[in-house]
Amino acid sequence: MELLAQTLVNGLVLGAGYAVIAVGLTLIFGIVGIANFAHGAFFAMGGYACYLLTSQGLSYLAAVPLSVLIVVIIGALTEWIVIRRSLYGDSHHGSLIVTFALGQAAVAGLILIFGPDPLPVPSPLGQSTMRFFGMFVTSQRAFIFVCSMLVLGALGLWLRLSIKGQQVVAVAQNARGALYSGIDVPWIRALAFVLGVAAAGLAGALLAPITTIYPTMGYSALIVGFTVVILGGMGSIPGAMLGALLIGVANALFETYVSVSWTPALGWALVIATLLFRPQGLLGQLQQHRH
Amino acid sequence: MIDSKQVGVSDRKMSGRTAREASSVACALIVIAVFAYTFSDPFVVTLAGYTCAFALFALSINIILGGVGEVPLGQCLFFGVGAYGAAIGMGKLGLPFQVSVFIALILSVVLAAIIGVITLRLTGAYFSIVSWGLTGVAMVAATNLEEVTGGPLGLFGFPPIEIGPLQLSDPQTYFAVTATILLLAILFLVALRRSPFGAAMDSVRQNRHLARSVGVDVARVRLKAFMLSAPFAALAGALAVPYTQIVTPEVFSVANTVDGLLMVLLGGAQLVVGPVIGAAMFTLIPQAMNLDPNIRILVFSSIIILIMMFAPGGLHQLGVALRDRFGGKTDDDRSR
Amino acid sequence: MTIAAAERPAVSARDIVKRYGGVTALNGVSLDVQEGEIFGIIGPNGAGKSTLFDILCGITVPTTGSIRIMGNEIAGVPPHHIARSGVARTFQRTAVFAESTVLENLLFGRHTSFHHGVLGRIFGSKTFAGDQQAFQTRAEEVLTLIGLDGERHRKAGVLAYGVQRRLAVGIALMSDPKIMFLDEPAAGMNGRETADFIALIRAIAPGRTILIVEHDMAVIRQLCGRALVVVDGKPVVVDAPHHVLSHPEVVTAYLGADDDE
Q: Would you say A200 and A71 are in contact if contact means Cβ atoms under 8 Å apart?
């Protein structure tokens, strides 16, 4: 019983981290209309930015927001130089290949700059543990959970209450309609892209102390992000959160009770089952047929 | 109603094309022979052989990318099936190389049929993501099923690899064999593109809905293309084994697919030999310049981004555009 | 069967309902289109016309209701089979294979009318070559019909919009269909192109049943014997175009409709 409770808590923490990655991914998909295969690279950049700042003597807690800022800058530049120019055209897989190549280039760049080996990111919260209702959680994990919830909550409120947030929602629902009603759609798209990759960068900075950082860390994040997003329904933010919690908890349970070594396959088993029985994902909208 | 002049023209064009092709095949054969027997540096010749094997993999990717217009991020699954098939067949079961490869090819087609039925209902990013995910599953499986796959360390220490009298451990033979197989594959794919099935693939790639409305069974064409692409990748994987001499779960890594995809995009997806040109560039230029593999990825990825932004048809399209502008030639180039 | 053919409608739909999640796109639409008729379907944007078209030609499966084409129930028949049995359609937006030439566009349907072994297709068996020839002949006829004889080797994507729409009709004509569905065929055409287009439809109409979804009332008025008005997924009236357009409910639907898009 205690093991089960502990496992569930671990799963929730894991899920919170996944949710931040996945919400960014689903935001970009919903607003910009592309599957961002470079998302993992921005996740890794968040981790490396954090490493760079802490290695300069900055404290971890100050490094996290600064890392996000660095990722925001890189993301904005990427959007401005590449993304908005590569969406046009009749080649519908253009954006997929471009973002994929961006991710590859970034990973190769990270290897060239920092080397291929894992690097530690020290966190003052790293070693201590906290007790909640008889369960142990390392402070870093608690921090991840709290930060994720705060950020997701803030994003939710912003989308619901602010004017810009409402414009984002409008573009997601009907880009052409939004354009006709005077919304600066390209600007909203750029904003969504930068917000999305910022979320990935935040997740990278948050998870860095517990996973260490390495150039290809983004691949697993990207894959987890995609499983979560497909499970929840592409473009749906509540779906991404639900999917993240489900996969986080399922992974934790599977690791504890079945097999650690087969866990990476679990997410895909869930995704394939989802696609077979509910192709639009758990909370996704069924795409109306269009030509 | 038939315009006889028109038919005559197309006939003449046809025979001119055939002659041109026959001569390019002859040239290719001569180049292969000359290359195999003049170059004595075993490293260069072996690398050339491996490049030919990998070019087969690029061709497999292009059956999907250039054929039906999906990005097959999971194609290394079949590459791995071929590599493991050859390795397990030789190392564990004591079968001859060619028998192991044959079994692996059959297996890859069966696997493609099963996977295709599930994943090809998806299009665009969904298809790419899920097929990528399946390679992750394959990698996990290869790591865990130690009895069969040797686990994370993989399989190695094979008996000398031979096809009948042909010793693949001999660099020149290895190159001659892979190059010849590559040539046959290209000829097959050229014929395929010109066949009605090639036209059907083309229609599906350009516009699924319109294709369906003119009676093309879109789902079937996509599945067939997928099943056709699998054995090419598997053959590539198997032919890579004499070069690598080891098969680890890393064959299922997306890095493999990335290499193949870059080759296709460099050379251009709409040209049958595009991926082969890309493969040559991808291997030879870094080799000649002694580039770090990561710089290679960085440079080629950047080139791909530029190509996609400015010339989505690959370098081939760039060439055609330049030729049209300066050469004044019309667009009757049907060599794709 | 053949004796009843005269009374048998070419396209017949009964109580079509289509729901997407909680949204009802179509609610109880029925229609009968007689053989040889040119039948229009009109209505404000978002009224469900395109959905109705997709359902009538088998691309979308209705939630409830039945469709018969030439007397045969089409439920469960794959769309490409329907396409091969003499039913053709054009699309609103993506109308042609942009990267191929005009002639190639017409020939894409060629492998559908006859079947050959894989080897025969690739290496060109004799009967295969003969069928290719027949198809080529048909392509020549269609080129003349749609007036694109001189453009056969141009890439479809570079043609003017109105010309692309003619080509789209040409693609549909290749199978010599008995029934044609034209989805907003004249959208975005200028006056001259529209007039040419109307002439083209008149020329191909004999011996065919044609259904047209169209916003341009002039096209409907000049071509159609009868038109169905769909508003908010519900059928309002079926009548001759000039009667339909003065029908009070239609007038309110059009004038009262939100100016979406």
A: yes
